[in-house]
């Protein structure tokens, strides 16, 4: 019996030995097959098997700008690294001021370009059709260093003297010769209006950051078109500067100043204005005065304003304002006065401006006579 059990044990040991050897051989065969497959795949697709730790640099697909040039990435983040130092952020308005310059009225030519339009009148429906075709050779209001055209013009039209049927065209970008081809129907225009009314055209430069500026304007008497006889009339007119574009037409402002050195304050009395330039089609204005007290650096300290005076070019205000001066007193302050036309429909328009500082004779006299009221006229620029 012991011999029988010993034989069984030897037989089982031999079986385990053969199984182990067979498993090792099978595993080696699997490893060899896998290695062979890997070598074949490497030969077929070498670009997919990169050496370990190799970095792939991907060029960003930035959208293309004008002329097919690629736009640069954002200055706030580098596309290749998150550790880059961001570029300094410069306000857009400062960039625009560095690259562009707005022309003063004295720098603009007297000839502002031309406007073309057609007229027709339906006496049965009392409808006046005005088609604004185009403008040519408009003068630019802003110049850029690179010579790019920055004029974005549109046309405003109204029927005078009633100031009815106010319309305007779309804005055409970056051109001095815009094409509009837009037609406007003015309903209820009577036969009497056709004989006596006037069309008022204004070509306006659009400004997204500031107030729009009138490039030029013209008027046309409907009677000259003889619309009762002609089916359609085509007209081309020269554009002229606005009357208020000249300094002489801006007028004068009468101010009274009193400097109280003991209390370090300044009393400003806005007395009246005279000879202001007309800002509406009736040749009048609705003016009021804004007063700013600023530091020499331009920082605004306080702002005040008068009441509006209706339909006059010679308004009388007699309004008094007391300004508490900063610690550096009046010698280092600037008084900024702006006469503005109040417009209930469009944005308010500046008629003229006066700046008073230490170089002004009025301020010098006030400083030399503290406590005394000194009045003086100031030309508006």
TrEMBL record:
Biased composition annotated in UniProt, kind: Low complexity: 71-81
Membrane spanning residue stretches: 16-39
Region of interest (Disordered), residue spans: 67-89
Gene Ontology molecular function terms on file: calcium ion sensor activity; calcium-dependent phospholipid binding; SNARE binding
Where does the signal sequence lie?
Answer: none
What GO terms fall under cellular component here? axon; exocytic vesicle; plasma membrane; presynapse; synapse
Q: Which GO terms describe its biological process?
A: calcium-dependent activation of synaptic vesicle fusion; regulation of calcium ion-dependent exocytosis; vesicle fusion; vesicle-mediated transport
Q: Which UniProt keywords apply?
A: Membrane, Transmembrane, Transmembrane helix
C2 domain location: 111-239, 249-378
Please name the PROSITE patterns in this protein's record: C2
What is the name attached to this protein's record? C2 domain-containing protein
Q: Which organism is the protein's source? A: Caenorhabditis elegans
């Amino acid at each position: 019996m012991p011999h029988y059990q010993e034989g069984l044990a030897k037989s089982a040991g031999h079986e385990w030995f053969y199984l182990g050897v067979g498993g090792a051989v099978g595993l080696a065969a699997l490893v060899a097959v896998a290695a062979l497959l890997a070598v074949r795949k490497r030969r077929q697709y070498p670009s997919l098997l990169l050496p370990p730790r190799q970095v792939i640099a991907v060029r960003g697909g930035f959208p293309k700008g004008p002329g097919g040039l690629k736009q640069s990435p954002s200055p706030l983040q580098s596309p290749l690294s998150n550790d880059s130092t961001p570029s300094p952020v410069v306000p857009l308005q400062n960039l625009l001021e560095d690259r562009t310059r707005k022309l003063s009225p004295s720098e603009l030519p007297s000839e502002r370009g031309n406007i073309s339009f057609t007229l027709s009148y339906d006496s049965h429906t009392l409808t006046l059709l005005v088609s604004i075709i185009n403008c040519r050779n408009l003068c630019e209001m802003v110049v850029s260093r690179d010579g790019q055209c920055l004029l974005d013009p549109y046309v405003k039209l109204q029927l005078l003297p009633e100031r009815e049927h106010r319309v305007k065209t779309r804005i055409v970008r970056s051109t001095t010769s815009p094409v509009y081809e837009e037609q406007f129907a003015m309903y209820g225009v009577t036969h009497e209006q056709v004989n006596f009314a006037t069309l008022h055209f204004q070509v306006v430069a659009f400004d997204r950051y500031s107030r729009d500026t009138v490039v030029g304007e013209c008027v046309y008497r409907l009677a000259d078109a003889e619309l009762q006889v002609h089916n359609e009339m085509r007209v081309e007119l020269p554009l002229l500067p606005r009357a208020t574009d000249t300094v002489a037409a801006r007028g004068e402002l009468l101010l009274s100043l009193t400097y109280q050195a003991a209390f370090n304050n300044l009393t400003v009395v806005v007395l009246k204005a005279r000879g202001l330039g007309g800002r509406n089609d009736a040749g009048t204005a609705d003016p009021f005065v804004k007063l700013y007290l600023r530091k020499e650096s331009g920082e605004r300290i306080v702002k005040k304003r008068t009441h509006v005076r209706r339909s006059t070019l010679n308004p009388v205000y007699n309004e008094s304002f007391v300004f508490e001066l900063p610690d550096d007193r009046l010698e280092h302050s600037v008084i900024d006065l702006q006469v503005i036309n109040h417009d209930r429909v469009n944005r308010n328009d500046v008629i003229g401006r006066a700046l008073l500082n230490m170089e002004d004779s009025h301020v010098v006299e006030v400083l030399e006579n503290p406590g005394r009221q000194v009045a003086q006229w100031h030309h508006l620029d």
